[in-house]
UniProtKB/TrEMBL annotation:
Keyword DNA-binding: yes
Domain (HTH luxR-type) ranges: 257-322
Gene3D superfamilies named among the record's database cross-references: 3.30.450.40, Winged helix-like DNA-binding domain superfamily/Winged helix DNA-binding domain
PROSITE patterns the UniProt entry points to: HTH_LUXR_1 (PS00622), HTH_LUXR_2 (PS50043)
Organism: Paractinoplanes rhizophilus
UniProt keyword terms in alphabetical order: DNA-binding, Transcription, Transcription regulation
Entries under InterPro entries matching the protein: GAF (IPR003018), GAF-like_dom_sf (IPR029016), Sig_transdc_resp-reg_C-effctor (IPR016032), Tscrpt_reg_LuxR_C (IPR000792), WH-like_DNA-bd_sf (IPR036388)
Highest taxon in the source lineage: Bacteria
Protein name per its UniProtKB record: LuxR C-terminal-related transcriptional regulator
Keyword Transcription: yes
């Protein structure tokens, strides 16, 4: 089948939205970009504009340093983000700070990088390598932009659910099993669990139990030499126990809440919810019966507490941490 033959945008969009967890969304998007263009490989990177970086979140057909984080001025992603429009790179290998392996033949072919927008900001960039036609014409780039942009809401919604904790820990080479209804977790939960794994020995087994109010992570270090025994870790809002079990090694049990307590006042929480709905300062003021100046002060406090540089980033941070009332992290708990 030639590039684009038999491709139906409506079918592709329905498939992308069929599972609103972030990883399936990105995998499906890449599968359809390959069908659309006949491309040999592709990747999607998630943008953190406030931090000036992006992370390779999904890929196919190439080893493009999946999971690594880069400055926003690097690679095809950096070029598309900087120009705020789709870009075509005639020969990827000539790009400064590209991330394909030096021996990869796709470096000698073209690449197209397409920004994905949400509420006026670039939230991701999809890069497609080496189409079968050998070039990216204007129509191919337009079709790519149409397809990738339809996934914007799915990426935002999928990002709210976070990554699978098991997938994060398995990247470290550990053996992981799960029990209960598997639930995506907030980024902070994943960071805490990954830190516990990093402190362990080489022979580590991990069990994850999803409970109503949080996740229980059980780790067994068969070498008995982990740092847990010498200095048991602590978790904000959670509990950790460590014991030596004869014949088993060191066993750690960590109960981690799905979300940390929200840092906002009641009024700030109201303002944040209306920000999530996309209301302007004046609309929020009208809804709450307050002046726009008062609303601006509340928004300023929200920005400081989330560490965000703009309203969209503040809302996304609150979602990631389960601080919004209908956030999946708190709803699951």
């Amino acid at each position: 089948m030639s590039a684009g033959e038999g491709f139906r945008l409506a079918d592709a969009v329905a498939d992308v939205y069929g599972d609103l967890r972030l990883e399936p969304v990105l995998r499906r998007l890449l599968r359809h970009t390959a069908r659309l263009t006949g491309a040999a490989a592709g990747s999607v990177s998630l943008i953190d504009a406030a931090a000036g970086r992006y992370t390779k979140a999904a890929e196919y057909g190439a080893f493009c340093r999946l999971g690594d984080t880069f400055p926003l001025d690097e690679g095809a992603t950096g070029r598309a983000f900087g120009r705020r429009r789709p870009v075509v790179i005639p020969e990827y290998g000539q790009l400064r700070a590209g991330h394909l392996d030096g021996a990869d033949p796709k470096r000698r072919g073209p690449a197209a990088a397409v920004p994905i927008w949400w509420r006026g900001e670039v939230i991701a960039v999809c890069v497609t390598f080496a189409p079968r036609t050998g070039t990216f014409g204007a129509q191919a780039v337009d079709d790519l932009e149409t397809l990738t942009q339809t996934a914007a809401a799915a990426i935002v919604r999928g990002g709210r659910f976070g990554r699978s904790l098991a997938s994060v820990l398995r990247r470290a080479g550990t053996v992981v099993t799960e029990a209960g209804e598997v639930r995506p977790v907030a980024p902070e939960v994943a960071r805490v669990a990954a830190g516990l794994v990093a402190d362990a020995g080489e022979r580590l087994r991990v069990g994850i139990v999803y409970r109503p109010d949080g996740v229980r992570v059980m780790m067994r270090d068969e070498t008995g030499g982990s740092a847990w025994a010498a200095a048991p870790p602590t978790i904000t809002g959670g509990e950790v126990t460590v014991e030596r079990v004869r014949g088993w090694g060191v066993v750690l049990r960590a109960d981690i809440p799905y979300a940390s307590p929200a840092p906002f006042t009641a009024r700030e929480a109201e303002v944040l919810e209306l920000m999530r709905q996309g209301l302007t300062y004046r609309e929020i003021a009208s809804r709450l019966g307050r002046s726009p100046k008062t609303v601006e002060k509340h928004v300023g406090a929200i920005m400081r507490k989330t560490g965000a540089s703009n309203r969209t980033a503040a809302v996304v941070t609150a979602m990631d941490n389960g601080w919004l009332g209908d956030s999946p992290h708190t709803a699951f708990g």
